[in-house]
Amino acid sequence: MSELYIPAGTGAADGYELEVTPKSAGWEHSSLRILNLPAGGERVVETGTEEMFVVPLSGSATVSLGGETHTLEGRATVFEGPTDVSYLPIRSTVTIASEAGGRFALCGAQCEQELPFRYGPKAEVPVELRGAGQASRQVRNFGTVGSFDAGSIIACEVITPGGNWSSYPAHKHDEAGPHESQLEEIYYFEIAPGPAGQPGLGFHRTSSSPGHEIDIMVEVHDRDTVLIPWGWHGPCAAAPGHDMYYLNVMAGPGEERAWLITDHPDQAWIRDTWADQAIDSRLGGQ
């Protein structure tokens, strides 16, 4: 399990606070880098064979390619709301700079299609309230299929209020077919502290699916990362008093960019209960 669970502070490489590449993960498609820039700092990024999203976790930045610059307003924290993003094409040399400093996620995927350098405004990020009751969560679809055109990458953010469960029912996407996509997935977590700064926690589960052995049951903390090469993943449980954020990055070998999943057969029934429950009011549900 150790290579699939990356505690905060243990995944640094190449000047990044966290670097997950296909090589380091032992797979072929998905990547994630967390860039921590000091005030006035900048980083030149060579995308190579990867398309990427630049996602401000905290702070603002400029993202420049050739003669074009995107100004990312960003946000103070991931719990503040959605953010604007920048899409980076393959085979590009990009400069990311931050006047006041900040932390920025570079979500990546191997890609053959060269698409334009584009800005994704915060106001255009589709926000979905999913589930109900204690399974209520908010999904920010800044880089999902149908929300933003890309070659391979699928990316989104999820907010789970303290005491709630998300990625529930557990589901999988490890077989290619008409009803399921084959996708590698990265979960990067941030956990809100308590009222006096007490460190928060949550839990993540991944279990074996047919033909794919895996067993992860881990207490996750702020800035931990979990890799999902296959298997039933979920639920993610946020401890009471500590809201949970996670950033999902997915990609796979399919010719079609699609997110098709299969629910765990023991847990799928829970969806039928949502029609009679309200969405958690902390997410604006009624």
Automatic annotation (TrEMBL):
Entry keyword annotation includes Transferase: no
GO MF entry, a single one: isomerase activity
UniProt-listed InterPro entries: Deoxy-glucuronate_isom_IolB, KduI/IolB_isomerase, RmlC-like_jellyroll, RmlC_Cupin_sf
Pfam families linked: KduI (PF04962)
Alphabetically ordered keywords of this record: Isomerase
Name of the protein: 5-deoxy-glucuronate isomerase
Organism: Pseudonocardia yuanmonensis
Name of the gene: iolB
